[in-house]
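C-alpha cells please, single chain.
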Amino acid sequence: MSALFTSVHYADRVSEQSLTELLNAVTKKNPAALLILCADDPLLDTNIIETFLQQRIMPVFGGIFPSLLYQGEVKKQGVLIAGLVQSVHIELVTGLSKQAPAQFELPQKLLTSPSMMVLVDGLARNIDPSLQHLFNQVGHNTRVVGGGAGSLSFKQKPCLFSNHGISEDAMLIIGLPNQLELAIAHGWQKLAGPYLANQVDDNVIEQLNFQPALEVYQEVIEQHSGVLFSEHEFFDIAKTYPFGIERLDDDVLVRDPITCQQDNMVCVGKIPENTMLYILRGEADNLISASVTAVQQVLSLHSTSHTFYDGFLFDCISRQLFLQDRFVEELQGISNIVDPNSAIIGVLVLGEIASGAGGLINFHNKTAVTALSYCQTDYTGTQPLPASLLN
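Here you go.
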C-alpha cells in the first residue's frame, strides 16, 4: 500500500476543542505522523497551536497558509489534520534569510527518502539558493514537492509547524517514504518582452533594460489593459500580469510581483541577475486546462505501470485570486481525474516547490503542482512489484 493518508479531517475553526476532536478522529486509524494545516485568519490564536504541537510525541509538520483545499473547495478558515500511513523524518532549517550561502546539512535518514515535502516561509529570502543546496545533497533521484506558507497580508510572521512549535523565516524538509509523481503546469502566456533584468536584489527587481523596473512594467500593463496604476492597488493589477523567466526548455518559470517599493518590484522567489524576463498574461480557460491536462498526462503515461492512490495539491494563492469563482473548476477537475474517492488535499501557497523534468528543484509562482502517491505494478498491472525490483 502506498497511500499517503490514513484519514483526513477538517474543522471550520481552530480551538482547543476542535484540535482535540480532530486528533481523536485521526488517531482512530493509528497514524505514524501528523500533517496539520491552518488557514491564515486574523483571529487565529497561534498560542493554542503552539501548545498543541509541542505536546505531540509522534512526528508533526505543517503550517499556516492563505487557504486550505479540501473536498474540492477553498477553505479560508479552519484547520485540517491528516494522519500519515508511514512515519517521516523532519529537519527544521531556521534563519533562512541569513543563510547566504545556505549551510544546512541533511542527516542520512533524510537523504535516503524517495521523496520529500518542503514547506518554507514564503516571505523569506534565500529560498532559491536553499533549494539549490538541497538539490546538491539529494540529487536527481528524489522527488521534491512543497510550497510557501504565510499570509496574504505579505507580513512575515511564524507560519511553519513542527514538534518544536511554530517557526518563521525557516524551511521544513520532510522525508517521505512514499513514491510520488508530479504534475506541474501554469498556462500563462507571453505578453511582452523579453527584458533584461540588469539590476536585481534576490527577489527584488530594480531595473529592466537599464530603466526603473516599475516604470517599464507600468507602461506595458496600462497600454494593454487600460487600467491605471494610480487608481488601483498594485497587487490587484499585478496578479493578472506576472513575470516569466526564460528557460532553455522553452517554458517559462513564473515570478509573481506582490508589492512595489518606489520604482522596485518585490516578487515571490529570486530573480537571477542579467536574466531575460517576459511580462505574461493569463486567460482563465488556459490556466484551468493546463493544470487539469498535466494531471491527466501523468495518469495516462503511467497507467500500466503505476497504481495511484491519494495526493496533495500546492496551488498559488494569486492564481486563485485571478480565477476567482472559476478556481473550483481547477480543483474539481484535478480531483475527478484522479479518483473522486481519493483524498486530494492541499493549500494555497506563496510559491510552489517541485522537482523539474531534469531533477532540479524549482521555486514556481502562479503554478499548480499536484503530487500523487503510487506504487509500481507488475507487468500485468495487478500486483505491486517486489521491493528488490523498485531499487
